[in-house]
User: Fold this.
Amino acid sequence: MKPILAARAALLFLPLSLSAPAPALAQAPGPIDPAREAAPADGFAALGGGTTGGAAAGPGQIYTASNRQQLLAALAHGGSQPKIVKVVGSIDMSEGRPFASRADQDQRAAVRLPSNTTLIGAGPGAGLAHGRIEIIGVANVIVRNLALMAPCDVAPVWDPADGSSGNWNAAYDAISIQGAERVWIDHNTITDTPLTDDQLPVENGKPRQCHDGAIDITRGASFVTVSYNVIDRHDKVMLIGHSDGHTADIGRLQVTIANNVFSNVTQRVPRVRFGQVHLFNNYLAGSKAAAAYPYSYGVGVGTGARVISHGNVYAVAGAAPGCASVVKAFNPDAASSFADTGSMLNGAPLGVCALPGAVGWSVPYAFTPRPAALVRANALARAGAGKLATAITGSGPVGVEPGSVEPARHATGVHTDTPLAIAFDAAPVLTGAGAITVRRASDGAVVDRIDLSAAPSATDTQTALPRSNLEIDALALGAMPENPARARFVWYRPVAVSGNQAVVRLRSNRLAFGTTYTVSVDAEAFAGRIHGSPFAGLSWSFTTRGAPASRTQVSVDDDGAAADFRTVQGALNWVMAGCSTGSPAAGGCNTAATPKTVSIRNGLYPELLMLRNVANLSLVGESRDGVQVGRANFESLNSGSGASSVAPGTALTAGGRVPGHRVLGGGRAVLLVENSDLLTLRNFTLVNPHARAAAFDNQAEALYFNTSTTPAAHRLVGREMNFVSEQDTLQLKGYVWMYQSLVAGNVDFIWGGVMAALFEDCEIRSVMDAASSSPGYLLQARATAGDAGFVFLNSRLTAGPGVAAAYLARSGGTASSAYVDNIAFIDTRMGPHILPVGWCVGTGTSRTGTGQGGCGSNPPPWAGTAGGGATDAAGWRESGSRDLDGRPLDTSARLGLAAVKLGGATAHVQLAKPLDSTAGLTRRADIFRRSTIATGSPGGWVPAP
Assistant:
């Protein structure tokens, strides 16, 4: 793999595992390197299939990182394939530049781990400063041997209602585990040092607290072991459980806390809601009279908490004898309980605790607690970072030869869609100034200029999105023969730093075939060194290759010289220019009669895409998981569903979380498709890797298939595909057949104005929503009346890590809406996360009336019938539902005949129903019977494998 591929990998991040958890390696006799160790058997992380992290990683998935960009590049590379990332030295996530705002800290401080990963410190001194580790909605993760500085929130919030006199609340934990499963946190040291609480300024009469949790485990995380860590000089140590009202945590939050050292800490060791938590052989040392971190309590037992304790030792100066000095009750309920055996406080038994001792469960794994007399010496000798030594090495790419550029100097045969790259001695820093200019060598004409300052986005008034290195790209500009000025206009960040490289993505379609170009990089663009000397600017030239031989058979490879293009959009531009419906007929490929194929080889393609007016095109990947296409895009960056146009929009957003941002019109999807009939997507992953965050409006789609809402609408096929996003994933119109594919998301992640969309033998996966504790929704249908709408046949509804609850659908209807809520689940297997009521109706209003359900403000559905109620032919419907093991599912609690308000009076409407007959919903020919696109009469399309 070429170095630039590793650099580009840093731009892509998969939010969930798409494949089975990595199995443990069969180990040869002899000691196992700590980087390949699995979680020990005496903890919850050994259950549920075990926690192996990246133990199965091959040499190409073993990385050594000594700076922020190397670390992020290593974590991004290979998605959720098993990987080991070794940290050398202390990595400053701020890179020496103080965080300017909460939004800046959100973006730059995060270290988000994918599934099947081991993150390990190389030895003493290895770790992170000014950063936070996020383990969210993933599985099989190990974090070991790291020295972590607890993050300090640059914008803590004062809450006058918190406590009797108000409190400051910070946002960031050193390690945050949300909705993850099978996690082992071992041999780490977490401390507030050097910025301890006694150094914080006093505002509103209290220290302006900027530290939150050390290790927080929330939102349904399960099978977690926290062992042999040292947490020193910290207030809120460990929160287990999101809130008293987050009942989805019941039955989850299975956590082992063993052999840790807690020194000079105040509280939450741990604070538990709902969880089954096992504490054994931990050592806590502190003082009630400490100036900076006075001890308050040890174990907080809250709502539904059921804690088992064995052989823990508490050495607290000034603490009164007895359990009340260690265990504190918070809003206990009938399930709250604490059972202890053999623990000591200041040399005396803990004694009887006020909470009930009947916890209702027993430790489900074998363990042997040490006698209390041996706990302190063992924990102090073995716990904390630097106690392990790993000799693991591999060839995972995180850097390239300093001074090298890509394309190489004077290179020939360069692809017209090539990215540019410059390698420094270490990770360079974008200064927020300067430009990168590409000129045609023959006449000096500027073909592209990347302005790295805030100037191109100066019309924005918003501050949430950094405005330097923010440019407008015109996707497919010049590739649409019907109007060469038409393009999809989007904001994008043209320069990314990965490892020791600065990687530059030029605007779409700027380089011509068979042409020599000169690149000039201003000295002020980057702060960095090459061969020890400060960067003083750079210039080099290269020559592009000739045009491909075919318009109808095109290949793409992100690092392959033999392919026609290096980007998917480059290939789409080529096909559109010669084979769109607006192309001359003489080209022989401008109609649906001529099949066209873009073959995509394994690799990473961090792109936003545009396709328009091409019929009978197939995008085919080399392998489903090996081809990853997509770049983060979301509502706050590029608002709206999106459309092509002849000029970028100029209006500013007036509401939402990022007001004052210029709306260009290209929309929030990764792939935008307009008026393209018989498009087939096959055997690759289309992903929008945007991670939901409180600072942004997060609607984010992988695909928007836009066509008419008439029987002449266009057709889309998705076969053996992965469609992945953290919120909306598919926005669909027309006629759609999804076959043996995965669709993953969390909020209305399948939606749109379809005529008919059949999901056959598919997996529909609900994924963790870290920005909300509410259940998700699979669908929001806006189907056209009289057609089949959304039909799920022989499919499976599954849940990713941390997902405990989801509704089948909710309606987007208002009193004036014309679309109908047509959804049918036929012979579908449904996981236990699907709520018993199934369908979501709250107190909102639709043409059916005003709902009286308990699902928030969501309106009742409109089925297009006289009273708006469901029938066998329309509305919310279900038949033959089974659990994931194939057993008939009890649907007796499903929403059905329900009360709504009509004109102030109560009426009963069949809001959802079990189907009396599945006629017309089990054959493709019936579901797509109204399509007229192929023959001009009904029954024109019957897709086939």
Notes: The first strand starts at residue 62 and ends at 65.
